[in-house]
Please model this.
Amino acid sequence: MQQGRTRNIGIDRIPWGPRVTRHYILSYIAATLSQAVFLEHPLKLDAPNPPADATAISLQTNQIELSAQVLRQFRVVFGAVRRHFHKIEKQAGIGGANIWTLSLIADHPGIGVSQLAKYMDVHQSTASNLVRTLNKAGLVQINKSAQDKRHVEIFPLPDGLKILDKVPKPYSGVLPAALAELDTPSLLRMTNDLNKLIQRLDVDESAAQTPLSML
Model:
């Protein structure tokens, strides 16, 4: 045993006399050593496992809190989208989807309806209706294609360009712009998680190709 670690096991406390047997001495020493070991290395009792009902309640409470947190996040996102479109519509006098359409026509003069629908990820009929609205408002011009009379080419007019100068970007809306800045792994995770949510909803599949400002 190392120096400084030796314990006094109390031999001087044994009542020496003719009746003290060898067995008595050994028993006394063994008991004293056991007590010393316990004091230096006390037993650590594991905390009792919580009842099954308590664990279930804790998990349920945690799930409710997480659900509420996700709901709040959706509210924040929807609020940001709504505020942006409200600001655009107030300044321009036309809807957010019309502004987005007008900006794409300004960026691609002579664009056709089918290509416009592809850029916006909307039905061709939706893109056609948006173009028709802009044309009636005197913001774009529609010409028959010289190569194919079945197709049209759309050009921005000066009044349309003036409107774009007045409204804040991004013309597509804050949500598409924010999603475009996310990395691929984040978008993949979001796609998978939102698919799980959509499967639990009574959804209108046509909404997938409807501009946010028109929902």
